[in-house]
Amino acid sequence: MIELSIDRIFPQRTKALKEVFAAKPDLTSDSELSDFVSAYFLCEALANKLIEYLETDDPPMSAKSKKIKCSNCGAENECPKKKTSGHFKTLDVGKIKKALIHFSLDFPFDDTDAIFKSGNGIVGRRTARQLRNEYAHSLSSSSREEIAQRSAELLDVMVHFCTSVENRISGRKA
Predict the structure, then answer these.
(1) Residue 130 burial by Cβ neighbours in a 10 Å radius (0-12, 13-18, 19+)
(2) CA 56 to CA 73: how far, in whole Å?
(3) Which of 51, 88, 132, 151 is the most exposed, having the fewest neighbouring CB atoms within 10 Å of its CB?
(4) Residue 52, pLDDT score
């Protein structure tokens, strides 16, 4: 049995853990951060739905011609977890772009990248997804600063994405 001891939290670790507490976001009083996070969550949820509907309308060629295995759990053809939250979905920018075309959504591909492109990114030019990931996983002060500096720009792009979907489903023109 492993003995758990407070002694294992060395002074350096204690300092780092205290820094996490000190960086605790206050979404009730920080409207800039709250607006950014809310807009990104809405964009991601919409993008996931669009991908799901795209794949329903146009399953991958391999699924039409042969048995395929779920890349997450190995189930053949119909994954039992597909319709539940049992899988972590990878948000694929290429699939989002295909969905934009498939559903005749008027939204620029460059802006799609500005929201959803993954990877590390370059400070000062990170995508909304990169900033959300870095901030959510580490409460990084540099990502929080970049969100503050670029919130107007990124919010405009994210709101435009949401409005494009909303206009399409309501029949309004952009």
Answers:
(1) buried
(2) 19
(3) 88
(4) 93
6 secondary structure, DSSP code: G
Beta-ladder partners of 32: none
Helix (H) or strand (E) holding 52: helix 31-57
What are the structural domain ranges in the chain?
Answer: 30-59+89-170
Q: State mean pLDDT over 131-157.
A: 95
Amino acid letter, residue 155: L
pLDDT tens readout for residues 32-90: 999 999 999 999 999 999 999 999 997 764 444 445 555 556 665 555 555 544 455 67
pLDDT in tens, 83-109: 544 455 679 999 999 999 999 999 999
Three-point CA angle 40, 79, 83, nearest 5°: 45
What's the one-letter identity of residue 74? G
Q: How far is CA 123 from CA 57, 76, 83, 142, in A?
A: 38, 42, 37, 8
Model-level pTM? 0.77
What pLDDT is attached to residue 66?
47
- 35 Rama sector, left if φ>0, alpha if ψ -120 to 50, beta otherwise: alpha
Token output for 24: 């605790």
